What we know:
5-stranded parallel β-sheet, globular, Methane Monooxygenase Hydroxylase, Chain G, domain 1, 14 helices
Amino acid sequence: MSLTLEVLVVGGGIAGMNYAVQLADKAGGRKLRIRILSKATVHESSSFHAQGGVAAAMCAEDPFEDHVRDTLAVGEGRNDADVVRLVVKEGPAVIRGLIGLGAHFDRDRGGALHLAREGGHRAARVVHHRDRTGEEIVRVLQQRVRDIPVIGTVMDQRVIELLTEGEGAYRRCIGVRAVDLRTGDVVEHFAHVVILATGGAGRLFEHTTNPAGATGDGVAMGIRAGALTRDMAFVQFHPTALFTGVPGTVGLVSEAVRGAGARLIGITGRPVMAGVHPMGDLAPRHIVARAIHREMVRTGARYVHLDAGPIGIERFRAEFPGIAALCRDTGLLPGRDLLPVMPAAHYLCGGLRTDSHGRTSIPGLYALGECACSGLHGADRLASNSLLEALVIPRRAAETTWETRAPAAAPASQVIARDRLAKRPVEIVGRATAALTHAMTMHVGIVRKTEGLESALRVINCIERQVLPIWHRRRWSPALMDLRDLLVVARSVTEAALHEPVSVGTHFLEEPEPYDRPMAHIPGGSIN
Ligand code: SIN
């Protein structure tokens, strides 16, 4: 009798769901059970909130070599060129696959796909569903997940550790340890293959476009288990998050808005990107974010303006309904009012090192999506290449998974401790998290200096000394679980940045002479 292949997917966003669907589709009569473990609903994932779209060379006038060239140019030579070619080449096929599943993408009057333009792209090549592309892709994948009986979703599972067995070359990942967020029970789940698809770590910084759950769980667990990382120094700041003055998750104003004609101007009316880069407002993100940061320092303002006047009120409302609603909530009418925007942490370009099939350095462990680093992005990510990656690499990972030898049945899940959840968050955790995000924002943000990076490391060391003893006392609040993971990722990003002696991509080391005049505190960036 053949064994059932047991697969655990940690994270229920687009990369995780896509993998599960692809694996089930390739089962061909073989026995399979996939459990997707999720700490929150998919509506709270970065995938769901993705506005822009999927970059893909969809027409004859836009050969895929041009998409490859733009990806390499934005990544400033730190990409894996083979992975770039492979992922970009599969773009049109994954778009056709999604359309086959029922995804609706915007079309022009002639019925051709409407392609938006975003930063770093020399052509319009972003396939999108108005400004809610993530939501649309989640919709079709979620339906497929529901329709496939071998895929089950286990909610409220906060995975805290990877389980491995064996030593040296024989060491492999055999499951995960999770806390059930409803009961507080600690549960061990076993499998032949474990997939991390946990998303990014935007919560390392005071302002982020990421949802609250972006705490770097997968990267942190992988690092604790000894998995290799890659490109951790590179954190992308999106140039245009809506400024509200409140820290935490901030609303995104998609780059497609600039692609449609909006322009960045300083509070004194000066065009921010004039003379900065030949691509102007659609330069690669690290260039635009840095120019905005410089303008904020120059003027002392906490934001610059995005002028959507060239788009007009009606067209803006039709093409960007989600962003229009976001602006309306703060009393702004895009097309009429200037929108206050600032850079905010958006995407972790680095992550757990994988090959082009999503395999990490630990056998039995895969990483997909933002927690992984396949080499596609390099030192900065080309806009809308992340959804592309989340659609392409999981498909390849699913093919490879079927080569896994499952010599014995995986043990059943078991509860190993009861009610470990602390009902009240320990006050020190809140203060420590604020201190960490402040240090990361000041010293490991858009502009970095060696002594700033060293000072951030001292803060990380100090917080670890205060907080880890609370962890070892084994009363765990969700806030403590988040902070423990954020600390691991913060250390990894900061140490990687200290190992980058020259500026490249999102890693910008300040010249000895600072910008025109210093300022006390800049949201989303650092000056000292
Ligand atoms: C955007 O719409 O500007 C974000 C898209 C992305 O990060 O790829």
